[in-house]
Amino acid sequence: MVRPRPQIDTIAMYSPGKPVEELKREKGLSRIIKMASNENPFGFSPLAEEAMQNEMKEITLYPEVTSPLLAEKLANKLQISKDQVLFGNGSDEVIRLLTRTFINEGDEVVMAGVTFPRYKTNVIIEGGVPVEIDMQNGTHDLAAMAEAIGEKTKMVFVCNPNNPTGTIVEKEALREFISQVPSHVMLVMDEAYYEYADAPQYLETLPLLPQYKNMVILRTFSKVYGLAGLRIGYGLMDPELVGHLHKVKEPFNVNRLAHAAASASLDDDDFLYESIRLNREGREYLNARFSDMDLTYFPTQTNFIMVDVGVAAEDVYEYLLNEGIIIRPGHLMGYPTMIRVTIGQREDNERFIDCLQAFIKDYSRQS
Question: Are 124 and 151 in contact (CB under 8 A)?
Answer without folding.
Answer: no
